[in-house]
Amino acid sequence: MLLLLRIILQRLLLGLVTLVVVSIIIFTAVNLLPGDFAQAILGQGATEEAIAGIREQLGLNQSPVTRYFQWLSGVLQGDLGVPLSQAMMQSFSGASTGGNVITVAEQIGPRLSNTLFLAGVSAAIAVPLSITLGVLTALYRNTAFDKAMNISTLSAISSPEFFLAYILILFLAVLNPIFPSLSNIFPGMEFSERLNKTMLPALTLTLAVTAQMMRMTRAALINLLAAPYIEMARLKGLSPMRVIVKHALPNAMAPIITVVALNLAYLVTGVVVVEVVFVYPGIGQLFVDSVKTRDIPVVQACCLIFAAVYILLNLTADILSILSNPRLRHPK
Q: Alpha-carbon distance 94 to 58, whole Å?
């Protein structure tokens, strides 16, 4: 038990160190983006004096190291800063930090909630579907059904997300108007209507992640079907489905958990293209809009949230894989 706790604590510490390193990379990469916020706001005809004045008012003329530690200190206190556009308006108007100024956290909060809702709907469809197809393709391997599923899923994962999105729009919104083509959701919308408008982007993400989870489930189960205890279960007269579900699947959970967690992380961090195509008001759409306007605090916050979610889900998968290992749970 102590060994198990030590391994889990090591993983958590490694995740924390990784997040700090990623925050440095994010800050450096964002500040290396071409263009300038002041130039983007004032236009190409702005004078050097006007650009320098805005940069000084917003603190953009400070050294990168100083700005990084100021940003990191704010993040540790739960303060993601103020969007540069809001900070500039506040500076020009002489307003205090309160009032009608919208912080980065307040701007990201509803968008992150929308993205998590989209990821949740996608996961609710993709995970059971992938595991079911994985079990069936392992049970009927090398049959026409197995080959058809492999061809279909590999075709889906090999296609760009925007292509899958436009194909679904064509067949499910234009030729057969089942779902709306634009996901213009808003606060206070009824759950059924929100789910209806979220379905097309959710189906797009489902097609993008199903193949990998299905194939990992299939491969893990096939590797176990030659094990002696599986042969013993067959000799006892158990049906092939019962052998796989009751005996093989529980022992194949470690790799399946890992690939499911990685794809769940992708459902949150890889939604940028899908949200742009469907004009879905999530954090991915906000990220793209902020990059266009060079709003550095918002871009940094979005990247940090993506990284934190990805690291957290990877840690969860790692810890669950450790807990599913009998040799660690019951050491000799």
A: 13
- Measured CA to CA, the distance from residue 11 to residue 2 in angstroms comes to 14
**Which percentage of the chain shows pLDDT scores above 90?**
30
CA distance 166 to 172: 10
Residue 162: what residue type?
Answer: F
First and final C-alpha spacing in the chain: 11
Contacts 24+ apart (CB under 8 A), 64-71: 64/27, 64/28, 64/31, 67/27, 67/31, 68/24, 68/27, 71/27, 71/297, 71/300
How much is the pLDDT for 326? 61
The DSSP string of 172-184 is: IIISS-SS-SS--
Across residues 282-290, what is the average pLDDT?
A: 91
Least confident of 83-92, 208-217, 268-277, 309-318: 83-92
**pLDDT band, residue 84 (cuts 50/70/90):** confident
Q: d(Cα 309, Cα 303) in Å, to the nearest integer?
A: 10
Does residue 161 contact residue 208 with C-beta atoms inside 8 Å? yes
The alpha helices in 225-295, defined as continuous H runs, are 228-235, 240-242, 249-251, 253-269, 272-277, 283-293
Arithmetic mean of pLDDT, 248-269:
84
